[in-house]
Amino acid sequence: MKEKVYELLSILNCDGDFESSTDFLADELLDSFNVIELVSLLESEFEIKIPGMDIVPENFANIDDIIKLIEKNQK
Asked: How many domains is the chain built from?
């Protein structure tokens, strides 16, 4: 799952070093528009629905937070 998420992130920012970052937003690898695009990619790839209440910066800060969000919404 982690590699697939990194692949999706690279679609949004092909030059971003997501694997070295601990905070994608603070490191300016993602912006608010990218987060909305990422939600759409995650929903499509993992066949989930991410509720609006879950679209908050802390759920997209790093790879572990994104994976937790996916797992939460797969249930």
From this structure: 1
Q: What is the CATH number of the domain that holds 45?
A: 1.10.1200.10
**CA 38 to the chain's CA centroid:** 5
Nearest-angstrom CA–CA distance, 23 and 14: 17
AA letter at 5: V
53: which DSSP letter? G
Domain range for 31: 2-74
- Taking only the tens place, the pLDDT of each residue in 37-70 is 999 999 999 999 999 999 999 999 999 999 999 9
Beta carbons of 20 and 11 less than 8 angstroms apart: no
Per-residue confidence (pLDDT) for residue 75, from 0 to 100: 75
